[in-house]
Amino acid sequence: MSPLAPRPGILDIDPYVPGRSKLPGRDRVIKLSSNEGAFGPSPRAIAAYRAAAETMHRYPDGGAVALREALGRRFGLDPDRIVCGAGSDEHLINLARAYAGPGDEVLHSFHGFNLYPIIARSVGATPIAAPEIALTADVDALLAAASARTRIVYLANPNNPTGTYLPINEVRRLRAGLDPGVLLVLDGAYAEYVTRNDYAPGIELVDAGDNVVMTRTFSKIFAMGGMRLGWCYCPPAIADALNRIRSPFSVASATMAAAIAAIEDVDFIAASRDHNAVWLPWLSDRLRALGLEVPVSVANFVLVRFPADPAKNATAAMRFLNARGIIPRNTDSYHLPDCLRITIGREDEMRAVAAALAEFMGAPS
Ligand SMILES: Cc1ncc(COP(=O)(O)O)c(C=O)c1O
Q1: How far is ligand 1, taken at its centre, from the CA of residue 236, in Å?
Q2: 88-98: per-residue pLDDT in tens?
Q3: CA angle at 18 for the pair 12 and 22, rounded to the nearest 5°
Q4: How do residues 50-81 score in pLDDT, each as one tens digit?
Q5: Closest Cα to atom 14 of ligand 1
Q6: Whose Cα sits closest to atom 12 in ligand 1?
Q7: Domains in the chain, ordered, with CATH?
Q8: Which pTM was predicted?
Q9: Three-class SS state of 128
């Protein structure tokens, strides 16, 4: 055996499984597996990206000053408390590197985004999953699962893959019930899609103290997942810690140029949000009418639970949809083997997936 081995625990990690993007033998697919914005990126972002090609020989601004200022203007935040990185993944990971390690516990809810346990293990900490109620994070269960070893609580709000959310009052209650020495990470990857009055991504909680961070991404409503850009809003001491350990140039210049243009294209973002507000309930209702269980989602995807009958279960549905060129997301790694997750895409894509599932369920046409 080789004397070289990764640190204990690394080989116990099940690698993250991304949504599939290809089907054998098909040039064109309807990809509804990664919650990418329905319309693709803003044309203004594409133009800015192309223009930035001319200077690709230059290193990017490692401090991302122009981008942080643009984010600060757009969201009314102090740019000094914003950190940018290669996807929100980078922040979720660096927060664990900075605040947790061997012997510590990292808490998340049972069906929470499954990068959280991977990240916890990667720094030698132990992931702890708190039970949910009705596929929704449960503050009482999270507080009951917190121990003297808990260092970080990750909460995706809304959550992927369930699409459910906690109202801001509940998030406040979670923060109040945790020890002040525990970092609460509010992952707002889908925040822009939420239209509920009782929802907030948590900026006020970041401002209220020194132990809450909000992470956001350009991969979802901004539809720039291939550019890898995420940002987080932090208390000054946490921004300082992240800036000490982050990769110095993890955001490419073309990414920053495209993102600044995307932020300024407010009409495009509003249109994406309006589109989602129409097609999210449309698809949910269509699928419920087929007898499928679809929890109320506030994000840009739905979780669909299929019957146990092997002819009608999630595996059979995946096969059926794939045969029609449609790719939903398998949710086995989220302890939801009887479900599939389907992104809200364009109107033609939504009509195609609804028609295919009606045929699959044997509904009269
Ligand atoms: C809840 C949640 N957080 C974070 C991410 C990571 O996004 P990115 O690294 O592309 O910003 C995702 C992506 O699917 C997500 O669903």
Answers
A1: 23
A2: 999 999 999 99
A3: 135
A4: 999 999 999 999 999 999 999 999 999 999 99
A5: 34
A6: 189
A7: 12-40+267-361 (3.90.1150.10), 43-264 (3.40.640.10)
A8: 0.97
A9: strand
